[in-house]
Amino acid sequence: MAPKQKTGGNTEKAKEVIQAVVIVESFDEYFQPLSYNIPRCLLPICNVPMLEYTLEFMATSGVQEVYLFCKSHMEKIKEYLKGYIKRKGKVPLISVCNANSSLSVGDVLRDVYRMAQISGHFILCSANVVSNINLMRVYEEHIKRQARDPAQIITLVLMEVSQGHRIESRTENAYYFLHPQTNQILHHHTELKGSKSEDNFPAPLEMFATVKEVEVRSDLLDTCIAICSKDVPQFFEDNFDYQCIRNDFVKGVLHSDIYVETMYAHILQDTSFKEGCYAAGVTGTAAYDIISRDIISRWVYPVCVDSNILPDTDYKQDPESVYKDSGVVLARQCWIEKNIVLGKNTHIEKGSRIRHSVLGDNCVVKSDSIVQGSYLFSNTSVGKGCSVLRSILGFGVQLLDNVKIGRGCMIGDNVILGPNATIPPFTRIAAVKKPEEFEDLDLGTASPSLSQDDNDAKSLTNVPTSVVGVQGRGFLWGSTTNYKDVDGDREDDYDSEESDNMEYFEAQNYCLNYMAVTMKDVDLKEADILDYPPSDDDLESEYSEDASDDVDSGIPINDLAISDAAKQNEDEYMMEAVETLDRAHNNKHEVSTALLELKSLRMAHNASPELQRLALMRWFATKIDWNNLNKSIKALVDKWNPLFEPVTDGDEAQIHMMWVVEQCCANIAADRSDTKSVRMAFQLIVRYLFDAEIISEDAILEWFDEAKDKPDSSGIDVTLINSLQGLIDYLQSSDEESEEDTDSEDEDSE
Amino acid sequence: MHEGVARVNILHDDEMIGTAEVLGNLSDRIKGDVIVTSCDTITDVPAQQFLDLYRLNRPSVAAVFSEIMSSEGGGGSSKDEGKLLEQFFYSHHPRAQHVETKYVVGIDQRSSRLVMLKPTDDDDKSIDVRSSICKRYPSLAISNNFLDAHIYVFSRWVIDFIKANSGITSLQEQLIPLLVRAQSHPQLYSKYRIDEFINPKSEPVVEESMQYSQNVGVTSEQEAPAPKTYGPLSVFAYVRRNCIGGRANNNPRYCDLNKVIARISQAPSVDASASVGAKTVVRYKQMVTTASSSSSLLFNNELEVTTDSQVGRGTKIGQKSKIEKSVVGFHCTIGNNVKITNSVVMDYASIEDGVTLDSSIVCQNVHIGSNSTISKSEIGARKEVPADTIAKGEQLILSGPSEGTSGIAIAFG
C-alpha cells in the first residue's frame, strides 16, 4: 500500500486507512410506496436487507471506515446499524452522515468535500450493491497504478456481462473505449435504448494519439462501485453541475480540454471464477427483480440465500434452487417450482402454486392461489384463489380471496385488498394517501392513471373501493407506466424535436427500470402519438382529471395533461414572462432588450414554445385598450412583433399561435360582457399578425379548417371562429387585393 | 528454407488494370480457394498461423493486418512520401491514381472477424461508429494503425463474385470494404445477391447470441437480442502486432524496410569480400569500429550481427568514410571521405570522394560526382550526377520512362 504523501505522520501510521463512502439515498422513487415507511436500503432482497449486503461486502473487503450518507429515514438506518454492530461485534468504523440537502450523487460528493474526512483514495459505492468481489484487490491495483500514472483520478468497477444476460442494462447502451493493456478509459459514450440516435455515434480520433489500438466494449455494466482519488470530491465542488459519476463526471473530464486526469476501468470478467465477479446495484425494481434471481441462482456465490447472512435464519437449499427456512409448512398438494425462497414459518396451502418467487417470514398463501415471479415481504397473506404475477407486495399486505394482481404492481405495507378485486398491471397502491412532496421528484407518478374504462381517476384516488375491493383499504399511488404524461409534452414541442425525443425516451426508459415492464409496454407507436386528439379511454381519464386546470391556464384542450411539478414551473414562467413584458412595455424598453430577457427566462424555466406563445398572448391581451381597439392593437403589433418571430417559426407553430389567440380571446369573452368587442379584437389581432407576416395565410386557413372540424364540446368558442369567416373568405378569394378591402369587409361582417 | 513451389506461372498483362480485374481474368485458372498477395509485402507473419485461421473458420475472405512500424525517416524527397516519382510513373497510366487511404479498422476480438473498415482523412476529428456493430461484437479492437498487408485468402466464390461485378476493380478499395459492410448490412447483402455466389452447402454461422438467449430462462422478459444471421459471409482478419515488415509501397517505407532487414539479417553486416579503407567508420548500432588498414578489411567478430548497416559483396569503400544506418549493395565503389547516413545504395553505384548522402535512395549504376551533397532525394538508375551537385528533396532521374523499370505494373491499393 502506498504511504501517505501529504500528512507526514510517523512511519507506523503511514499505512492508509481504507475509507468508503456509501451513498444510501437513491434520489429516485422507484420503490415508492414500498420505501415510504422504511428506507429503501432496508428493503429485503431474498429476505435480507439490502444494506446488509453492502456492509458485509465492505467488511469482507477489508474496508476500515465507512461513511454512510443518508437522507430519508435516517433514524431507522441508525437503529438498524446499532443492531448490526451489536450482532457482528467487530465491524468497520461506520459513521452516518446527513445528506439532507443533497439532491444527487454529485451533491453528496460535494458534502464529502466539505466534510474533509477523506484523507486519501476512497471507495465510492451505493448502498444497494450486491457483490461478491474482493474490493481490496481492486483498491490495491488502483494504488499501484497511481504510482505509474499520477494523473489517475478514478477507477470504475465494471462488470462484463454476456450478451443477452438478464442483468444487461435495459435502458442504455454504454460504450467504453479502453486502452487494451491498461484499461484506461479513453472515451465513453452512452445512448438510450430505442432512441433515434441509436445508430451511429462519433468517436474522437484523438484517442489514437496516445495508443495504437483501442478496445471498444459494449458489454460492460456499471456496478455503482468506484475507487476515487481524493481529488474527486474537489472536482464535484468545482463543477457544481455534475450530478452523477458516469454521465457528468467521467464524460466531463474525458471530453474536457482542460483536464488531463485519467480514468481507468476495472473489469470483472465472468471467466475469473476463482474470485468473485459479480457486482450490481439495485437501481430500480427491475434490477431488484434480476438481482434477486441472480442471488437465488447462485451467481453471487458465496453470497447466497443459504449462506444465512442474518443470524437468525436457517435456510437450506433443496433441488432446483428452492430455499426454505425453518418452520415452513407446505400442504401435501401444492406446487413449489424452482427458484423460490420461503421465509420462516411460511405456510403454503393446498392447490397453490409458487414459482420464481421470494416469500418473507410468516407469509401465508391460502389454497388454490398462484404466486409467480413475485416478491412478498414478511407477514403477507394471500387468500384463496388469488393470483400474484410479477409484483412486489410490502410488509403485512393482506390479499383477501380472489384477488388478481397484474404484473408490475407494487403494493405498499399493510394494504388490504379484496375480496374479488382485480388490480390492473403496473398499479401502485399504498396504505396512506400519496403525500404532495413526491410530486416534484418523480416523473412517473405525476398523475394517477388507471386503465379503468368507466371510472373517474380522481375519485379513485380517494375511495378506490372499485379497485381494492369491498373490504379493501388502500390508496392509489399512481401507475408505474405513466410515461404518457411526459410523452404529452413531446407533442407540443414541434420546434425542438431533438430534445423532445430525448425527453420521451428518458421517460420511457425511466419506466423500463420498473419490474416487469417490457419494451412493449412503453413503446408507443408513432401513430398513437400522432393520434390527435387521443381517443384512448385510459388517456381520456387522464384528461378529465386535468381538464379543469387546463381551462384555467388557457392551454387549449388538445394539449395534453402536464404534471403538477411541470405545471408549477410553467405557472412561474408565465407570471414572470408577463411581468417582464409589462416592465418592458411600461418603461419603454427596446424590443431587443425584452427579447433577451425573455430568452433567459425561457432558458431558466425550460419553457416550451407553446408556453412562450401563451405567455406572450396573455400579456398582449392585457395591453389592449378596449376603447380604442384598432389603434391599440396595431400599435402593439407594430412595436412588439419581433417578440413573436422566434416562437412562430413554421406552419405548425403558427397554427398553434392561432389557437392561443383564440383561446385568449375566449377567456376574455368569458369575463367581459360585450362579446362583440372581443370578436372584433380577435379579428384585429389575427389581421395585424397576418400583416406583420407573423402568421402566414396558409396557417390561418389550415387552422380554420381544423377549428371548424372540432366538436362544440371541445371548449372552443364557435362564434369567435365564425367571426373570422370574412378574413378567411378574403384570403381564399384573392391573394393580392388591397388592404382597405379587407378592412371594410371585416367591419361589415361585424 | 523452403524447397521451392511446385510450379510458378508468370502471367503478363499489358494493360494497366486493377487488382480485382486481374483475379477476374484469371477466374478460369483458379480452381479452389486462393491466396493473393502483392510483391511489395515483406512480413514476418507465420504463414502457418494465418492459414490455420483460414482453415479453421473457412471465412469468405481472410486478410492480414499488421501494425504499422514507426518510420525512422529517410528515403524521401518526401514531404508527400515520395509521391512524385509515383506520379511520374503513373502519369502514363491515368487509371491508377495512387492515393493511399488510411483506414480505421475494427476487428472483433473474439472471432477475429473484420467488422469495420472506415476510411479517414488526416483532417477528421472523429469517426462514426455504428452502435449495432458495437453491440453485436461487444469487444471490438479498433485502430487507425493497422496496415492491410495485402495478403488475402479468398474463397472460390469470391472470384466468381468479382467476375460478375465488373465494377469492382480494386481489391483493397472496393471488394474488401464491400464485403465487410455486407456482413452487417442485409440490404447490401441481398442487393449484390451474395447468397447466390456462396456455395449453398456451406454451414451457416451460428451466432453466439443465439446460444445465450436460450440460457436466459423462462421468466426473463428481457427481449434477447434477435439473432442476426446474414448468411455465411464472413471476413476474417489476422492481426500481427509489433511485427517486422510492411509494404514497400513508397520510398520511406522502402527505406525503412531496407534498414529493418539489414538489422535482422543473419548475414555478416559487412561482406567478407568488401574492402574498407583506413579510418573509415561503418557505424553499427551502438558500436564503432575503425578499420586500420587499406587491405582486405578487418573487423571484430563481435560486431557482426547486431548492426544497423549492411555492406554488400565486392563493395569497395575508401578512406575516412562513414556509413551509418544504411544499406550498401554489391560491387559499389565508394570513395574517400564519403558520408552515407540513413540511405540505400543499390548495386554497382559509384560514389566519388567527399560526397555526403543523407536519407536518400541511390539506384543501380548511378554515378555521383565528387563533393556532392544529396539529402532526402532519390536518384534513378544509371543517372550521372555531376560533381558539386547540391540536391535536397529532389528526384534525379534519367529522362524518358522507357529507361526506367520494365515489366508489368499493377496498381495495388
Number of DSSP E strands of chain A? 36
Q: Average pLDDT across residues of chain A?
A: 75
How many separate domains of chain A?
Answer: 4
β-sheet strand percentage of chain A: 15-25%
Q: How do the strands of the widest beta sheet of chain A line up side by side? A: 16-17-20-23-26-29-32-35-36
Coarse morphology of chain A = globular
Q: What percent of residues of chain B are in strands?
A: 15-25%
Helix and strand content put the structural class of chain A at alpha/beta
- The CATH superfamily name of the largest domain in chain A is Spore Coat Polysaccharide Biosynthesis Protein SpsA, Chain A
Radius of gyration of chain B: 26 Å
Say how many strands of chain B there are: 29
For the record, the count of structural domains of chain B works out to: 2
Low-confidence stretches of chain A: 1-14, 439-463, 481-500, 524-563, 736-750
Structural class of chain B: alpha/beta
Distance between the termini of chain A: 89 Å
For the largest sheet of chain B, list the strands in their spatial order.
Answer: 13-12-16-19-22-25-28
Describe the structure.
The complex is a heterodimer of chains A (750) and B (413). Chain A has 750 residues and is an alpha/beta fold. Chain A has 4 domains: 18-285, Spore Coat Polysaccharide Biosynthesis Protein SpsA, Chain A, CATH 3.90.550.10; 314-479, Hexapeptide repeat proteins (UDP N-Acetylglucosamine Acyltransferase, domain 1); 484-555, no CATH class; 598-741, Serine Threonine Protein Phosphatase 5, Tetratricopeptide repeat (Alpha Horseshoe), CATH 1.25.40. Helix content of chain A is 38%, strand content 18%. A 9-stranded mixed β-sheet of chain A has the order 16-17-20-23-26-29-32-35-36. Chain A has a 7-stranded mixed β-sheet with strand order 5-4-1-6-13-8-14, sandwiched between helices. Chain A has a 6-stranded parallel β-sheet with strand order 18-21-24-27-30-33, with no helix packed on it. In chain A, helix 15 (564-586) runs antiparallel to helix 16 and helix 16 crosses helix 18. Chain A is globular and about 85 Å long. The model of chain A is unreliable at 1-14, 439-463, 481-500, 524-563 and 736-750 (pLDDT under 50). Chain B is α/β, with parallel strands linked by helices. Chain B folds into 2 domains: 2-72 and 95-247, Spore Coat Polysaccharide Biosynthesis Protein SpsA, Chain A (Alpha-Beta Complex); 265-396, 3 Solenoid (UDP N-Acetylglucosamine Acyltransferase, domain 1), CATH 2.160.10. Chain B is 21% helix and 24% strand. Chain B has a 7-stranded mixed β-sheet with strand order 13-12-16-19-22-25-28, with no helix packed on it. Chain B has a 6-stranded parallel β-sheet with strand order 11-15-18-21-24-27, with no helix packed on it. A 6-stranded parallel β-sheet of chain B has the order 14-17-20-23-26-29. In chain B, strand 4 and strand 5 (114-120) form a beta hairpin. Mean pLDDT of chain B is 72; it is low at 77-98, 202-230, 284-306 and 401-413. Chains A and B meet through strand 11 and strand 12 of A and strand 6, helix 4, strand 7 and helix 9 of B. Strand 11 of chain A pairs antiparallel with strand 6 of chain B, so a sheet runs across the interface.
